[in-house]
């Protein structure tokens, strides 16, 4: 049985100055070799009651809250209805992080966040909101750095389940999600990112027009795989007869 999903990509030929632009393939994703990958949709800020401690870079804006509740959650429900496995990636404070760690030092100077204290559990920063928390039969992979494949069991978890295709949602389209899908390509997975289920932080210079996220999606369509939408994915799932 297959899931038929339109996959958008971007054509750079015949020349960089005059590219043909977007095109679509009619993708056929096997139900037995496809998984939903939810990247870094953590934080206790997506439920009705938002706890204290989610401020600064961890503050949840309304657009992101709406995306999680009204796009990503329904995508997960649609995937579950047709039997696709769901794999979560989430950050945690690994034993490999100490005061001399360069990633920790970068976080301090760029984000004013010391993960050695801010990420020490329990913390609402890394807890899952009830609306999108993993179910008992979902796969949860914890990572320290951006890519979900770096020093984790993600590749083994996918290959042990025969996964060949990844439908991907979550954050951040330039950083954690972006590096994870790039590493997925390196490992020969076919990637389909649901482009209305991802976002990135915008700089003051890119905020109007959402250009940082635009470029992240364009990069994926040019250099990694395909994109589609939550509506297309849910519609494709609705046509699958699993009775």
UniProtKB/TrEMBL annotation:
InterPro entries: Isochorismatase-like_dom (IPR000868), Isochorismatase-like_hydrls (IPR050272), Isochorismatase-like_sf (IPR036380)
EC number(s) reported in the record: 3.5.1.110
UniProt keyword list: Hydrolase
Cytoplasm in keyword set: no
Entry superkingdom: Bacteria
Limits of the Isochorismatase-like domain: 34-212
Name this protein carries in UniProt: Ureidoacrylate peracid hydrolase
Organism: Jiangella mangrovi
